[in-house]
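Risk register update: the risk that structure generation would not scale has been downgraded. Supporting records follow, first protein first.
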Amino acid sequence: MPPRACQIPRDELIACLLRTDCVLKEGKTPAECLKTPRELPIQCQHLIARLSDCKKGMLDMRRRFKGNHLSEEAKARARARGLNMFIS
């Protein structure tokens, strides 16, 4: 059975949230931590944006035919910022 759409970004976000101070030190659930995203580490914020973009891509008919991929320009910007882990 193939993985569900957006499953990889979702799993990465969950793993990131589980490593935050919000969960580890404050004892909140990941869902509670998502209510204040500005307090999360920048990596988790990027993963939130990635998951959101993936979900939007599922509804965008142009992306459904072409594929839910980053443009070359977006990939270059991500590499320049050192965000290689977000490029697949």
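Supporting record for the second protein:
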Amino acid sequence: MDLVRTTVAVPTWAHLDTLRLGKWGEYFAKMAFVRAGLDVYSPEVDDRAIDALIRIPNDPPRYLEVQVKTIRAAKSGYIFMRKRHFAIRPDSFLALVHLAEGAEADLYLIPSLAWRTPNPPFADRDYEGKKSEPEYGLTISPAALQTLQPYLFSNVVRELIAGTWPSQP
């Protein structure tokens, strides 16, 4: 395949393996913050599940910790963040990149505060007495995506820049 001459008229994601899909989602989310006029910093070591630090140029500046998760829309799914790496506080966010074949990516910016008192599609699982680590989760389905509409990136980033966030959860 000649990559120089190939043009992609319709977005396709099926050919990407899990690692490439995740990396693509991270870059997509970071570029959305840059496009919004914010500063983006990438940790050199990924041992705390922080994919980006975002600087909001208020006076004084504010900083956000962002964990990015990418999921394909082909079927319902579940994503999770280990509790030891995803604190419930106003400056901690999940950037969810949702990819559907033939469509541009959708980006949601979900505050960790949404898991303070989770209702579906949000989940809080402790797995007491089991091997799995405690986690915060999110079930992805067509109905769940409707619930997540208030968290579309364009809505939340506007409030963050204006300094009116957090005003929800």
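The first strand starts at residue 39 and ends at 41. On this basis the risk owner (M.S.) recommends closing the item.
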